[in-house]
Protein 1
Amino acid sequence: MGQPDLSFEQELWSLGVSRIAGLDEAGRGAWAGPVMAAAVILPQRVDVLATLHGARDSKQLTHLEREHWAGEIRQVALAWAVGWADASEIDEIGILPATRQAMLRALAGLAVSVQYLLIDYIKWPKCPAPHQMLIKGDDKSLSIACASILAKTARDKVMQELDGQYPGYGFAGHKGYGTAQHRQALSGLGTCPAHRKSYRLGQP
């Protein structure tokens, strides 16, 4: 398990670049619900690493740990925002363009302007700002790890809401991913408006 740090951020800070947004997404592989993205700008302070020590790639944390760190991140961050693209938009333009759109919406929601982006790797030929794509970026950059936590917790909340709107699918449990329970629900109930019809739903 990687413990992300501020190496990339500190190098940019030393060059006078202070407003660096970490970007990450959640939900690209799910069969239902939106793809969510989050942008997080951490303040240029030496104590940030100690304050957020333990925040890491959201997949390495439990639900309770993610909720704890999401609260800490929102308090510490200079700015943060989430964006999303729903299932119908994913079906219309495809998951990769929809993911980029969610990221653009997260960036647009930030209270301050961005000078540079650190992004968990995604193909983005027309990225709108100076940036660096990092493979497994949420293991390396604390800004990206924080974004992964905010994207995941925001998406989990949406899936809980969709569970209430469309009971029987178990969205609150599997969060729209292709589990055996989800596959069984699809075979009995068919799809609902939250499903991504362009995906091969129900396939192992």
Protein 2
Amino acid sequence: MKKRYIIGGLIIVVGILVGFFISKNSAIAPAAPDTTGMATTTATTTITTLPVKSHASVPTILKNGEYLVTYMNSGFVPKTLTIKRGTGVRFFNYSTRAMSIIAVDQNSQTYRTLNQEQSVGKGSYYDFSFVNPGIWVYTNRNNNVDRGTIIVQ
């Protein structure tokens, strides 16, 4: 009878240790993303809720390392964002208007790459990786009064 309790106790201890080591390994952060690539865009996807509420004073960073710029009925939040070269930004439409991000400086080939091909509605987003340093002023093609600035260092 004692053998059963000892074996049962050992199985429980081994199970706890295995569970501890498995959960510890899953908490390791992934390696930093490769920032040597060119600027890319990602197809829009509809989301039902805002992933993180963006505040004007503190930039929001998503789990995938991208910064969040939220398009609200009142404009872009934050209006100005400073990031490092190679960083991605997710422009999330939380307004009741259509959103299509375009660069204000259309005379520069570099800045023209920041042109969202299709407008998206509320709950959708546009991803863009900034690989070239500079000051990127952008607007919503559908409401060009709303402007924002990304400073890439």
Protein 3
Amino acid sequence: MWILLTSVLAAYLLGSLCAAILVCRALGLADPRSGGSGNPGATNVLRLHGKVAAALTLAGDLLKGLVPVGAAALLGATPTLLAATAVAAVLGHLYPVFFGFRGGKGVATFIGVLFGLHWALGLAHVGTWLIIARLLGYSSLAALVAAPAPFVTSLLLAEPLPIRIACGLLGLIVLARHHDNIRRLLTGTEGRVGDAQG
């Protein structure tokens, strides 16, 4: 029980380190929450501050998902512990204790935990995102379509039940966090890749 609690708490705290805000502070740039879509994520940082800041933000958000789950896997964690650690990392990004519980939409951290769980789960998400983004030009739509892909892949791989539940739950959470994007897509006001709303 203590191992579970420690792993979950550590993953949540690491997830709470908002890469977008920290990168912008380090580079002397405006807080991403104060402009654009107001979302502290790589897409909004790209629009506000350019490719370098966005790339650093993306790397940070990926790593804070990959590191706790990957470390737990290397230490021989059970599927239940891995799943709980994955969920905690993403929840930390969405509701960061260090930043007033106002976080991003969780896509990059979700991808990080997926690669920590199994490379094929991460590849399923990234591959789907790239295909949809390239064909249709919408980052948010690509994220929405890609969100369920890891759950389907976990079924095909016959992953343990806790891993399947984590993939499904996190996919649903990511979908829910994109409610504003869904509304803009339906009304035809959503921006495309490169100028999209966060």
